Automatic annotation (TrEMBL):
First and last residue of the signal peptide: none
Gene3D superfamilies with a match to the protein in the record: 3.60.21.10
Pfam family, one: YmdB
Any one Gene Ontology molecular-function term assigned to this protein's record: 2',3'-cyclic-nucleotide 3'-phosphodiesterase activity
Name of the molecule in the record: Metallophosphoesterase
InterPro entries: Metallo-depent_PP-like, YmdB-like
SUPFAM superfamilies reported for this sequence: Metallo-dependent phosphatases
């Protein structure tokens, strides 16, 4: 199976890059499945239902969120109905929406997508290890699903790496989101799980993690809240990872970075 996971869409630049390139990448890489983290898609904070619908329309199969899940309040009734839109699985019981989805493909295969959120330097939530372990006790590669993709939305690289090693050999991939900087550690772990600490963002890299430079710099220098941060709107780099799995086991055989457009050096897998 060939899968693509795109990192955080940041504002208009990130949205438009994803909407433009997802159909092209589905064809060029012969993709079976596309997942996108879109928690920053609406002016850098949250996701609107119309934006989710547009991403699904161009070929996204699943959308994950994160700590900005509820910044657009109108997403709350939408997420209760749209099972392909995921918030972190370790939110408290009773939180709207779901943290995982078993999504069927047209050929009958199924992909389980899971999002967990880290706790180091983040909001105090339920344990992502425990909640993910409980879910995986009910799903097994090659039995209930043909691939399992975990999005670990976290600040600390150590927590992301520990999370990946904890579930190595039981899932197809663990890829990090949230810090907006693509890491160079794409690898298949010893147990067969593809891993990257952070996929990076889909957005304008002539910025401070996607936000206009002046406001972000001013906040750090003066320690004053200042104006609301606004997304940079220059040419976007689309960032993510291409993952290929063994059809028999569901484990990864390769993971490679995808970078397209904008300021960063391009990277595209060869088939």
């Amino acid at each position: 199976m060939r899968l693509l996971f795109l990192g955080d869409l940041l504002g208009r630049a990130g949205r438009e890059a994803a909407l433009k390139h997802i159909p092209e990448l589905r064809a060029a890489l012969k993709l079976d499945f596309v997942a996108v983290n879109a928690e920053n898609a609406s002016h850098g904070f949250g996701l609107g239902p119309d934006m989710a619908q547009a991403l699904f329309a161009v070929g996204a199969d699943a959308i994950t969120l994160g700590n900005h899940a509820w910044d657009r309040r109108e997403i709350i009734p939408y997420i209760a109905q749209e099972k392909r839109l995921l918030r972190p699985i370790n939110y408290p019981p009773g939180t709207p929406g779901q943290g995982s989805a078993l999504i069927p493909l047209p050929d009958g295969r199924k992909v389980l997508v899971v999002q967990a959120m880290g706790r180091l330097f983040m909001d105090p939530l339920d344990c992502p290890f425990r909640t993910t372990e409980e879910l995986l006790s009910r799903h097994k590669l090659g039995v209930t699903t043909h691939a399992i993709l975990l999005d670990i939305h976290a600040e600390a690289s150590s927590e992301k790496m520990a999370f990946a090693h904890a579930f190595d050999g039981r899932v197809s991939s663990v890829t990090g989101t949230h810090t907006h900087i693509p890491t160079a550690d794409h690898q298949v772990l010893p147990g067969g799980t593809a891993y990257a600490t952070d996929l990076g963002m889909c957005g304008d890299y002539d910025s401070v993690i996607g936000m206009q430079k002046e406001g972000a710099i001013g906040r750090l220098i003066r320690k004053l809240p200042g104006d609301r941060l606004t997304p940079a709107e220059g040419p976007a780099t689309l960032c993510g990872a291409f993952i290929e799995t063994n059809d028999a086991t569901g484990l990864a055989t390769r993971i490679e970075p995808v970078r397209l457009g904008g300021r960063l050096a391009p990277a595209m897998p060869k088939l």
